[in-house]
Amino acid sequence: MILLRPRRLRRNEVVRALVREHRVHVEQLVQPLFVAELQQDVGPIAAMPGIARYDLGGAVAQACQLFALGIKSLLLFGIPAQKDDGATSSYDPDGIVARAIGAIKAALPEMLVMADVCCCEYTAHGHCGILDARGAVDNDATVELLSRIAVTYARAGADVIAPSDMMDGRVAAIRAALDGAAATDVAIMSYSAKYASAFYGPFREAAGTAPQFGDRRGYQMDPPNAREALREIALDVAQGADIVMVKPGLPYLDVLRAARERFDVPLAVYNVSGEYAMLHAAIANGWLDGERAIDEILTSFVRAGADIVITYFAAEYAKRHG
């Protein structure tokens, strides 16, 4: 009997690199970027070491730094000066995200600018849509608003519209609105399987999106459900989504793998703020080797099937691997 020795192909780094099954390429990474309208909202985010909110000029400068590192895709989030129940600043052509899109594209025409489309940053109550008389999120009224936001961002120069609200039917409505506005080249990256997760806490500090009452379990997905995620993805693909997403990442690698096996469209994963924060805390305490842990986590997403990895570690990874 021949003794099989898999260790032959692990004996040094040259051999390991030669037979490595999965690699994280810098081109796959997307860096989230927070841009604030008011100067008082600009600055470091305490719960997310190394991440900050930028003013318009700072956002452009940060985009230039990312591009120089090889990070050529970013996902924009806005912190407006004013909020109201109708989220009116979200679709203002002079709003902070629309202006940031225009400024970044003017400075870096080749930068792929993705714009998150949701209402939670812009509503006074912090929920992801328009409320009805009972205080519940009105799905159809919200979809109309999301379509209006999408057209505003497309006209500002966004390359990709990324609806993160989890309203039913919003992908079809946004696609129709974009096509009707002669924005047929603008793609949709849908947050298709977005769970009602405990891992969003630091983001809510960063973007000021904590709901003033209740929670988001009525529209975001229930964490125990995996088959439902595949149904949500299938619905978005049928409605015209160009890219679909699983969010968060680490607790839902099984969902990511199942989505990869079922669907042939580009698949994104969001390595969310809570995942980033807890890893940084462990690194700061000396409990983990930071570089190795970051590489291992990003590789896990690619190994599970992600084509696109949205991560706050993008710039850090690119500095070492770009």
Defining traits:
8-stranded parallel barrel, alpha/beta, 322 residues, TIM Barrel
Please tell me about this protein's structure.
By secondary structure, this protein is an alpha/beta fold. The protein has a single domain, classed as Aldolase class I (TIM Barrel). It is built from 11 helices and 10 strands. The protein has helices at residues 13-18, 56-69, 96-107, 139-156, 170-180, 201-207, 227-239, 253-262, 273-284, 290-304, 314-321, and strands at residues 29-36, 43-44, 52-54, 73-79, 112-117, 160-163, 187-194, 243-247, 267-271, 308-311. Strand 5 (112-117), helix 4 and strand 6 form a beta-alpha-beta unit. It is globular.
Write a brief structural summary.
β2 and β3 form a beta hairpin. The protein is 39% helix and 16% strand. 46% of the residues are buried.
Question: How would you spell out the order of helices and strands?
Answer: HEEEHEHEHEHEHHEHEHHEH
- Give the beta-strand count: 10
Q: Portion of residues in helices? A: 25-40%
By helix and strand content, what is the structural category?
alpha/beta
Q: In order across it, which strands form the biggest sheet? A: 1-4-5-6-7-8-9-10
The CATH C-level name is Alpha Beta
Shape type: globular
In whole angstroms, how far apart are the ends? 45 Å
Major sheet attributes:
8 strands, parallel, barrel
Low-confidence stretches: none
Strand proportion, as a percent range, falls in 15-25%
CATH architecture: Alpha-Beta Barrel
Gyration radius, in Å: 20 Å
- Within CATH, the superfamily carries the name Aldolase class I
CATH topology: TIM Barrel
What is the overall pLDDT average?
93
**Tally of alpha and pi helices:** 11
Q: Quickly count the domains.
A: 1
